[in-house]
Specification:
By secondary structure, this protein is of the alpha/beta class. The protein has three domains: 279 residues, Alpha-Beta Barrel (TIM Barrel); 36 residues, no CATH class; 31 residues, no CATH class. The protein has 13 helices and eight strands. The chain has an eight-stranded parallel beta barrel with strand order 1-2-3-4-5-6-7-8, surrounded by eight helices. β1, α2 and β2 form a beta-alpha-beta unit. The protein is globular, with a radius of gyration of 22 Å. The chain starts with 29 loop residues before the first helix and ends in a 20-residue tail after the last helix.
């Protein structure tokens, strides 16, 4: 769900010039904020991104959570698919940079651009949930990865029960590890977070049982997925359980939630409103509100940001291929249309140049201050 209006009570920060402030929630740990949002919201939606800029755009539009997608990360950073082709520390570092960027973005938005009359935009920092794949190895790989994520300031992570090397839940040939092995990895996640003093770190257990073609159990399909979810909940460790579904059909989703909650009435779920499905052809697509009613507390679209970036850049490139410079001029016209809310249309404002001038002046940094800015007509430059 999108965030409510920004709070009026602001707190000063030593990283802001005098007279500016940020919400006091800045100093609440993301894991704590995420748990509180799960408790108080009908459901929590996190758009899927793969880099700091995407996370900042999510924050700008006041969403209350960010999902850092593994598949999107594979495409966006390696130009490859989601078949365990990147390492755990690589995505942990990407998530760390996203968390750091959100904290900085809150500061840059909090000052606006006084010289141009741009008002401050007061934003809460959305907690980040990260794809942990199948743990990148045994329990000690899980130990290392969890430590990297927790110390990065991540709020939650999900672990899946696939055999390594894993693959996207919508790619064929998936196989499952024994449930006991998965439970051991979940126990390690919880142990590491607790050892680091973050007993509020959210652990999400994912099962690919519904589409797996190989597993130790004789059961297959939805029966296996329900059994796996219950076996993970039996440990008392997962805060949320996620079943990866192969299509947008609502029947299996409703059956899964109903059957698991018959055994674990307090169970909560995560749901991938997957980009792999042609939702636009579904005559009755599941709504976020309906999912919330079924107990799906965290909902996300894994590759939403990647598809939007691909669509936007492809549109620009096709226009420039056909009309050269006019293709880019058309983009700028759309960015600067009256009423358009496109924060990146001024890359200087979005990246925090006004903030750096103000704080640079306050800290006596060399050649940082408004007096060093060229006086250029606003109709000429962004």
């Amino acid at each position: 769900m999108a965030a409510v209006a920004a709070p009026t009570e602001l707190a000063p920060s030593p990283l802001l010039p005098e007279g500016f402030g940020v919400p006091p929630s800045r100093w609440i740990h993301p894991a704590t904020r995420f748990r509180e949002l799960l408790r108080t919201e009908p459901y929590l939606f996190g758009p899927g991104v793969y880099d700091p800029m995407g996370a900042q755009l999510v924050m700008y539009h006041r969403f209350k959570a960010v999902y850092f997608s593994g598949y999107s990360f594979a495409i966006g950073h390696l130009g490859t698919t989601d078949m365990d082709l990147y390492s755990g520390p690589e995505i942990a570092d990407g998530a760390r940079r996203a968390v750091s960027a959100l904290r900085k973005f809150q500061l840059t938005m909090a000052v606006g651009d006084p010289a141009k009359g741009v008002e401050p935009r007061i934003l809460d920092i959305p907690p980040v949930v990260v794809d942990m794949d199948a743990g990148y190895g045994n329990i000690f790989n899980v130990q290392r990865q969890t430590e990297l994520l927790v110390t990065a300031g991540v709020a939650a992570a999900h672990l899946e029960d696939q055999v390594l090397p894993k693959r996207c839940g919508h790619i064929g040939g998936k196989a499952l590890v024994p449930a006991t092995e998965m439970n051991g990895k979940l126990r390690m996640m919880r142990a590491v977070a607790d050892d680091l003093g973050r007993d509020d770190f959210t652990v999400i257990a994912r099962t690919d049982g519904l589409s797996a073609i190989d597993a130790p159990e004789p059961a297959r399909g939805l029966e296996l997925a329900i059994d796996r979810a219950c076996r993970y909940l039996e440990t008392g460790i997962p805060d949320l359980v996620w079943c990866e579904f192969p299509t947008s059909d609502r029947g299996p989703v409703e059956t899964f939630a109903d059957q698991v909650r018959r055994r674990y009435p307090e169970a909560s779920f995560a749901f991938n409103w997957s980009s792999s499905f042609k939702w636009y052809l579904d005559p009755d697509p599941l709504t976020f509100a309906e999912l919330g009613d079924l107990g799906f507390k965290f909902i996300f679209i894994t590759l939403g940001g990647q598809h939007a970036a691909g669509h936007g850049l492809s549109t620009l490139l096709a226009a420039m291929a056909e009309r050269q410079e006019q293709g880019y001029i058309e983009l700028q016209r759309r960015e600067f249309e009256p009423g358009a809310d496109v924060p990146t249309r001024s890359h200087h404002e979005f990246s925090g140049v006004p903030y750096h001038h103000l704080v640079g002046k306050a800290y006596d940094a060399a050649r940082l201050g408004r007096e060093f800015v060229e006086a250029l007509p606003e109709e000429k430059v962004v």
